[in-house]
Amino acid sequence: MASIPDLIRRGAGILPDSLMFRAVAGLLAILAMISAVMFYGIDGFVSQQFSRLHNERVAIQNSQIQQLIQDELTTYEALAQLVVADSDLRQSAQYHFYLDGEAAPLRADLNRIAKAFRLEWLAVWDTSGRLVAAGNEALARMPKDKRTALKTWASLAWIDEKLWVISSTPIIVGDDITGWVQLGRQTSTRGNATILSDERLTLHPVQAGRPQPP
């Protein structure tokens, strides 16, 4: 009579050749392949979803930043129009332009307004592009933009690796433009000039030198 170990050895020798073993082994192999495919499929799907969400978040943040900058530029355009409407400033400018008066009263008005609005740069230019008076002539060199000289405008400018918000508006007496008021404020941003998506937000690299008329 065969012992139990002999029966086990015989069963082990017969089992690999049986149909049941082949079926189970095939099923396990199929399940392993399905699991691997599902794992890589799910991993790829999750990665795509995270990538899409990241891109959407970046796009939303960029849009919000663009809108904030646009709002800030609009504010500075309004501020330039408010400054040029100052009656004392207009009288000083007309006195200088039409009567060849001294620039000291105009400079005093510029300093007064710059202090009131905490502006680091405030200047008046004549129609020939000559700087007439400024609150701080040595502080900033602003870019010249002939395309928008006939209307109020605002833009960004890199000056000595610092980002400025600047705005300019014409001084109009009657139907004539007698000069321009230009104002600017330095931001906390530092770095090199880059180009943003909106033409109005182009950062103009400004070289060292004299202040430039609007």
Determine the mean pLDDT.
72
Low-confidence stretches: 195-214
Q: By CATH's scheme, which homologous superfamily of the domain at 80-206 applies?
A: PAS domain
Q: Biggest β-sheet, characterized?
A: 6 strands, mixed
Q: What is the percentage of strand-forming residues?
A: 15-25%
User: What is the highest CATH level, the class of the domain at 80-206?
Assistant: Alpha Beta
**CATH fold title of the domain at 80-206:** Beta-Lactamase
Shape label: rod-shaped
Percent helix, as a range, is 40-55%
Structural class based on helices, strands and sheet pairing? alpha+beta
Strand order of the largest sheet: 2-1-5-4-3-6
Order of helices and strands: HHHHEEEEEE
CATH architecture of the domain at 80-206: 2-Layer Sandwich
